[in-house]
Predict the 3D structure of the following.
Amino acid sequence: MRVNSFGTPAYDVAHLLGGGVLLMSFLLLYQRRIGGVINAFAVQGALLAAAAAWQGWVQGAPGLYVTAAIAFAAKAVLIPIALRVLVGRLGQHRAVETALGVGASLLAAILLVGLSVMVVLPVTAGSATPLARVDMTIALSVVLLGMLAMITRRNAISQVVGLLSLENGLILGAVGVVGMPLVVELSTAALVLVLAVVAGVVVFQIRERLDTLDTSILDRHGGEA
Amino acid sequence: MLTALTALLGGLILLALLAVPLARLGVGARIVHGGCLLACLGFAAIALAALAGAEAAPAPLPLGPPWGPMWLGLDALSAWFLLLVGLTGACSALFALGRGGDHPPRVLAAFPLFLAGMALTLLAADALTLLLGFEAMSLASWALVAADHDREENRRAARLYLVFAAFGAACLVPAIGLMAGASGDLAFAALREAPPQGWRAALVLALVVAGAGSKAGLVPLHGWLPLAHPAAPSHVSALMSGAMTKVALYVVARLLLDLAGPAQPLWWGLPLLVLGAASAVLGALRANLEEEGKTLLACSTIENVGLIAIGLGLAACFRAADLGPLAAVAAGGALLHAMNHALFKTLLFLGMGEVGHGAATRRLDRLGGLVHVMPWTAGCMLVGALAAASLPPLSGFAGEWLLLQALLAAWRVGELGFQVLAVALAALAALAAALAAAAMVRMFGLVFLGRFRAPRTAGAQDGPLAARLSLLLPAGLTVLFGLIPGPMLALAEGALRILARADMAGRAGPVVLRLGDGAAAYLPALVALLLLACGGAVWWLVRRRSPAGVAHGPAWDCGFAAAPPHLPFGDPLTQPSPAGLGQPLRRMLGAPLLGATEAVHMPPPGDPSPARLAAGFRDPSFALLLAPLDRLRDAVVAQAERLRGLSIRQALMLPFATLVGLLALIAWLEGGR
């Protein structure tokens, strides 16, 4: 059964889910309010879980269902709830000021997606299935957009969300490759959790010490506490 | 055979691991050095067997990087250098065994690793293993140079040494990458199939000469050598000078003369020729000016490395001009001199270690008259010094004779420019040989002859039996190898065929070494017999002609009067000082080549203080090479320091921009294909 060529449902659904994850990355860049950022991130996590589950079905790899479950629990439920609690406790409900204008960051995001298409498609030409190629393209785009989100935001929480969405891109790339052992995904998921913990601690530390979450206040300290 | 070699390598590494717990025991140092001695003897025996015809074809190891196994092998070229490493390593280990003393664990652990690194470099049959061995050798010897790190100058020497080692690696890694090309197969057989061409070949040549040349001590990358050798313990500096520089030359020979293919153009040998001649002259000149024993010997090593590099470069040039027999003569001279220099320089360094141990200093202006209290050491050092002065029939002569003969025959290469260069090189090589002889006379005379210059020197004595044996072994080998250059070259036949694609067929007989029919020939045994006969005749004549009962009368003493009672060691001013003995050469050659300065500081009229003569020199490599690098480093650091002022977002932007830039580069490269 050629499950992963154009026109088959396997390909189309995977494409749709991957595209959804990428679309959420754009939304992350576009949102001005911190609640919106967290919502977009939660939806992205759910879409990622769906993509992983779909891949598990297409590849016939039951391990990927575990990945999907972990991704859903962590990315779509636990971390967004934790972030919301955090925002509530910190009293951060006002608008997020972006460092780069929304229009400019969206333009940069489009350029980055173009770049990842230009990189991945020729490199993988002839050696990978079409599904894997598209998957890799989308994953690379999500990673790049996550980094862009980290750069364009001033607020520590939205920078953390950018970092986590970057991790989403990595997992999306990992599940798209046939035969990736479950160990890698599990460790990636664990890494994400650890990252979330570390990021939360850092956010609290910044707030306790400096009474603000605007990381530009750190510039004066230059890394020396 | 490879199994035995691998076992010896593994044994050395095991010994290094065990050295740390063993160092606590009293006998730990003995076990480690004894193990090293056995391993080195094993290496020498296996290398001898390989040279006699039992070469080991390359075989893959069961371990290695993900893209392929590591290969080990032993062909004639590596066997020749393995024999050299085995012999010098055995002498050094024997010396450490005999000398005893307390060795801290870091030195005990590094010594077997150093030996293992050198052996691995020689046994490698793929470029990655070669690099691994080379780097292990560099790192272990760094630890040994830093052994006595209480003193500031030793720390400085170790730092400089590490920088040069890193530089060598930074040159060799891309050179090997360029040689492997796109295929990425690093096995020697594959590299030999695809020799570099065009700009890639030129780049490989420059990188290999700079990378391995810095480890060998070729000018202008010799700055670490006179600093690192005195800093290391004696048995280590003997090994570094005798064996490690040769391993670096082996890497040069292997990469440039063997793996880069036989069809390289005439300029392939030129860098080695020019840098070799510069090293020979500069090293020999500095050896005449230095005032510390081991520094002097280190400078003499630079000279000899230069001579060997000239031999290798000549072999490459002759091969390019299709003069196979001459290439074999040049390569034979280089190989012979490498072996002989390794032995007599080991002897000299170990002897200097004995001197430093006995007299508590190695400064020439504090030594003197040691022949009276250390006769064994003095005798062995005399053999080494005569060999280093390349006097027949000792071992230093044959190699240099072959090199000079090859240089004198270099006019057979048709290019006019090359002929002119060869004439200049012959003059420089002869100058270097003469300067080396002068340096050895100065060294031996100041250390062993004359009167004690310091009271402490009078209390020196020869070392224990094992330490004496460790001097007698290389001394005996130096005499022996001097008498049999022909059989030695016959042994090196396979190595010559690798280096020169020709051999010395019929010209290296058991007794005579000849260049061709009717051309010059060298009969070491006859020279020895002649010298013996002359000496015997003189002795007999003196005995025969002298009246019965020899009466000792006062001879003319050149104004060197007996010590007056109030100065039991004589007036120091009646003996020449090291600086004074070096003065003519410093004035003649030191000023243009080494920036030597001399200034008289006269006190103003009426001031009773003495006038002072200040003389000194500075190696130009420090002013011209290291000082600009220092400034460059400071500038780079000042720029890098600005990174600390960046905000978090700017700091995040740096890797992001780098990533995007690299991706764009991939897209551009892939799009262009």
User: Anything to note?
Assistant: Residues 154 and 216 of chain A are 7 Å apart (CA to CA). Chain A has a mean pLDDT of 78. The interface with chain B takes residues 99, 112, 115-116, 118-119, 122-123, 140, 144, 147-148, 150-151, 154, 215-216, 218-219, 222-223 of chain A (CB under 8 Å).
